[in-house]
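User: Hi! Is it possible to get a structure for several chains at once, not just one? Here's what I have:
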Amino acid sequence: MFNKDNFLEASFIDNDRKNIEVLTKSDDGESVIPTIIPFNEENHMFKELMEVTTLDKLHEDTYNKKKSESELYKQEVMRIAKEDGLLSTIAIEENKEDYFSSILDGITKKQTDEDHLFAFKIAAFENLEQINESDDIEGKKKIRQAKNKIELFRAIFNMIE
Amino acid sequence: MNILCTGKPGDGLLRYSYEHCCYLNNLGIKCRVIIIPHPDFTKEDYTKSLKDQYKTYENVVFDDYTPTSSEITFVLGRSMITLPYLDRHKYTKDQLLTLHLLFKNNIVAIYSENHPKDYPLALEYFKPKKVYDLCDHDVYPNGVGIQYEKIINFGAYKHIKDEIQHKHLFLGTNEIYYKEIEKHIDKYPDHGIVTYNAKWINPKLNNLFAPIENILGKFETYVYTKPNFDPAPRLFVEFKWLGKNVEYVRDKNIKDGGMVYWNRPLPSNKTYKNNLNILVNLIKSI
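Assistant: Yes, the chains can be modeled jointly so their relative placement is included. Here is the combined structure:
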């Protein structure tokens, strides 16, 4: 059933390491066939498996597979957190130094970056009530006309302090 | 109030926008037209277009405007919101900021159905406080909003000089209109087709490139051929207003503003005022 021609990979599928999933190619090579077998040295299928791989390799592959799945899971969680705007909340709650230093970088570096300036301006107008609801046209003009981040934040602080 | 126009200088929406602005300012409602020029046109194109047609040229702002949060944004068609959303990558940062600030406020929008799928996405993107709908239900029976008609404000027009140059006027400002005109044009030897210098025009025909000064004074008859949906036609109403001839050369089964406006009486000062009062009352209630 398992041979060097059709064998793809094998790994334990449970924490107790009692069951193994073996992936093999179909005869036409078009699909992948999963087969679950017990970790039992007397089992004939396990004996076949041991002819194409080793127990050490099986443990190593299991570790690598779990690691890779865990990475994918983390990436997915981060994607959802970003989408829902939760990243900053998590960072603040955890008091992450990296988060605050990246804020400082965002403000002090690339002073005239058009995309940064635009994003800060939109955020100020949309999220800060003292600016959004203000009738201080001159103050708002200073924000929208700011040519660098220092000018921009000076104008923002003037309106919210 | 700010009337936002993101259309082209030849569009009827620019004219309806400016005419509303004139009327509302005359009523004492402070109002301006904010034009975010289409990427293919310049500010001068818009200025010329308005100066050629109207007695005044005032309360027009380009690109850069910072509204207070209590100012209302009025658009003469939902496409004025959807198009800038779809074209947002073509605008400058200044233009885009103006659009964000204007659309963040309360919006009064006249119903139209140009982009039914993209319109909700545009609202999600700009996040307005609230949208108040107006709708010409004769044109859009399934539309939403308080009944409101787009009516031409002839009171704002310059005097039309009679200087006839051709018998028949055709409007061929895009390829679809132009192809339709080509089906009929052999019956109208003394014609002028208002169009743009584009690759799809037929050089053997008498093409006149827009914008054309005093266009209403240069023809005897307007031949209305527009083959697709026309929500609020202006040119045949203008010709009728001047007592000139109009030929309706299009499928009379098309259910749109074509037949609706054809059958409506010419607007009087009273009908114009009554209609605008609907908008004024809405503005006051916001």
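The radius of gyration of chain A is 29 Å. Chain A touches chain B at residues 114, 117-118, 121-122, 125-126, 132-135, 137, 140-141, 144 (CB under 8 Å).

User: Great, thank you!
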